[in-house]
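Repro:
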Amino acid sequence: MPTLFSPPAVTPVRLARPPVLESWDATGHPSQQRLRAHLDSVTALVGPAAAADATRLALALDVGLGDHIVLTRGGHDLDNYLFPLARTFGAGRFDAVFARKRHAASSTIAIGPAAPADPGRAAMPPLLSVRTSVSATSPAWKETIHQACRAAQPEPYPDGPLHLVLCFRLSARRNWSTLWKPAIDALGPLLGIPDPGRPYRPADDRIVDLALHRNVDDSLNHDVVMTIWCRPVPPPGVEPVRGGGPDVHTEGDSVRSN
């Protein structure tokens, strides 16, 4: 079984402003300016926890959104909140990153040492494991993952919020954060594909609880082994279905999807 990690066992810090999604606009675009201001603010808040010499870290981001926002639609993709933080602090310093979104008045971040999860919380069998041997920038990389998902889950999960855990086993030389988005883009057989003509545009905003783990194995060279757990998130007051994936947060994981 892959090694999974617990969220950092430190007190979260409240963010001064709401988290900002990754931007692909030109440097001077207002979205880039908002992102830079957000990253500067977070860097000032976390202070010594993200010192340049710290490694083997875990990061947990809790995204608070207004009650008028539908959590499972609208493009609030959790990996797009996490990626600019990984770029800022250095993705290679993290063994695990976590994010969730919920209706709340504020957002928090925590950075601390990574520690393996309690075996009782992490021992749930995965949905599937797939090894890729081609470049992650090639269409074949996504296709390999896509087909493995379809074989393991012929129909997507019913509508509603999802809890997703991905573990990447790969060489320390790989920038694992660059794999997050293409990997999730390939999960259409699990998440659902709103437009069949665009199979790599899945309904990934359904993911309201996301955990990304890294296991270093330099013997893999350029290959990547990805292990996947996924399960529906139950409504408030309902216990989660056991066996659908390891727990990644210490608090209750129920959520309203509207």
